[in-house]
């Protein structure tokens, strides 16, 4: 099998090293990154110190990377996902499994990445388009720390085959046919991670953080189920697992953004200091638009949006959230 990972960021690089395939091609947008990976077996910009196996070869030639691939893993951030995919669309066979690593919403269309894939490739088998998601902080997985993920694909038999390719001694992979739920959870939790980072930056303790994460899980479940996801998906690795990891870890880029805001920095200052994309900064606007379209109350996301786009302070949004009327804990949650 020839597997190709498109996108040599930290997570794309880590995934390339996990795959059990005859050959793995890792596409890097910058030629210097591809050259460094091939020369030193390590990604100097995004995952330094992680030695890639000899089965991985990097290239900056997108056409070369995609041609003849039996499995495509798309690790391009949401804002560039469509453009890169469209560039090589004619080269992709309609039955090739395509697995998205991106956890975002496309601006303007409000599409999830599997929807973008189907839109760019209208003749592609939709049951062969899915996601790999879960509490997957690239650095920890690269270090071989025990972790798990879920591969969500409508074709359950295909998901089982792909499970074997991703599964490893320290990386457990489970299957799920709920693509909508798994993907929606991954996008929604980024918004919540910014909020948790704000709380951490303001110096709040575990009572506050536990309260926040619990209500954040409720909020993303409420919106995700309206979109068509199954409630149990949000209680699993794609939902609760990913939410806890990104809300608690300083390795999470979205958490880093929120932490800086909580300490009084502006969004522009924080983003300018980062060399990787924090999906939540871009996708919060789309999440809010989806919530408004579906008529779903998302108070945490709304206040995160006010900080990101309207200049509200951390203290202001805290006062608004704590001042909301308290009702039934499960009110508004779909059965």
What do you see in this structure?
- The protein has helices spanning 10-18, 31-40, 62-66, 78-87, 113-120, 138-142, 156-166, 179-201, 206-226, 231-234, 237-248, 253-262, 267-272, 279-294, 299-310, 314-322; strands at residues 2-6, 23-27, 56-59, 71-74, 98-100, 129-133, 147-152, 171-176.
- It is built from 16 helices and eight strands.
- It is an alpha/beta fold.
- Helix 4 links the parallel strand 4 (71-74) and strand 5 (98-100).
- It is 51% helix and 11% strand.
- An eight-stranded mixed β-sheet has the order 3-2-1-4-5-6-7-8, with helices on both faces.
- It has two domains: 2-177, 3-Layer(aba) Sandwich (Rossmann fold); 181-322, N-(1-d-carboxylethyl)-l-norvaline Dehydrogenase, domain 2 (Orthogonal Bundle).
- It is globular and about 55 Å long.
Notable traits:
single chain, 335 residues, alpha/beta, Rossmann fold, N-(1-d-carboxylethyl)-l-norvaline Dehydrogenase, domain 2, 2 domains, eight-stranded mixed β-sheet, 16 helices
Range of strand content: 5-15%
CATH C-level name of the largest domain: Alpha Beta
Shape: globular
Number of domains: 2
Q: What's the pLDDT, averaged over the residues?
A: 94
Provide a brief overview of the structure.
The protein is of the alpha/beta class. The longest helix has 23 residues.
Secondary-structure map:
Layout: E1 2-6, H1 10-18, E2 23-27, H2 31-40, E3 56-59, H3 62-66, E4 71-74, H4 78-87, E5 98-100, H5 113-120, E6 129-133, H6 138-142, E7 147-152, H7 156-166, E8 171-176, H8 179-201, H9 206-226, H10 231-234, H11 237-248, H12 253-262, H13 267-272, H14 279-294, H15 299-310, H16 314-322
Parallel strand pairs: 1-2, 1-4, 2-3, 4-5, 5-6, 7-8
Antiparallel strand pairs: 6-7
């Amino acid at each position: 099998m020839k597997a190709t990972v498109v996108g040599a960021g930290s997570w794309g690089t880590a995934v390339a090293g996990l795959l059990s395939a005859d050959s793995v091609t890792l596409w890097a947008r910058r030629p210097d990154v591809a050259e460094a990976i091939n020369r030193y077996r390590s990604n100097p910009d995004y995952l330094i110190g992680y030695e890639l196996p000899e089965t991985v070869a990097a290239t900056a030639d997108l056409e070369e990377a995609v041609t003849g691939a039996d499995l495509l893993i798309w690790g391009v951030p949401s804002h560039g996902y469509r453009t890169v995919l469209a560039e090589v669309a004619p080269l992709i066979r309609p039955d090739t499994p395509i697995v998205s690593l991106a956890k975002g919403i496309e601006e303007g269309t409000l599409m999830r990445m599997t929807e973008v894939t189907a839109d760019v490739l209208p003749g592609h088998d939709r049951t062969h388009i899915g996601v790999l998601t879960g509490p997957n902080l690239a650095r920890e997985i690269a270090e071989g720390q025990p972790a798990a993920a879920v591969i969500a694909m409508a074709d359950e038999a295909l998901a089982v085959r792909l499970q074997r390719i991703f599964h490893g001694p320290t990386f457990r992979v489970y299957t799920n046919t709920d693509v909508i739920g798994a993907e929606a959870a991954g996008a929604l939790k980024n918004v919540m991670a910014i909020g948790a980072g704000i709380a951490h930056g303001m110096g709040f303790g575990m009572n506050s953080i536990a309260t926040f994460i619990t209500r954040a899980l409720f909020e993303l479940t409420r919106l995700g189920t309206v979109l068509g996801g199954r409630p149990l998906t949000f209680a699993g690795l794609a939902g609760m697992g990913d939410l806890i990891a990104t809300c608690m870890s300083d390795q999470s880029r979205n958490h880093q953004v929120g932490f800086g805001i909580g300490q009084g920095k502006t969004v522009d200052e924080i983003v300018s200091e980062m060399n990787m994309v924090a999906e939540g900064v871009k996708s919060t606007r789309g999440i809010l638009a989806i919530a408004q379209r579906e008529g779903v109350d998302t108070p945490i996301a709304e206040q995160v949006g006010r900080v990101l786009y309207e200049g509200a302070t951390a203290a202001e949004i805290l006062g608004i959230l704590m001042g909301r009327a308290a009702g039934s804990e499960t009110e508004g949650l779909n059965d």
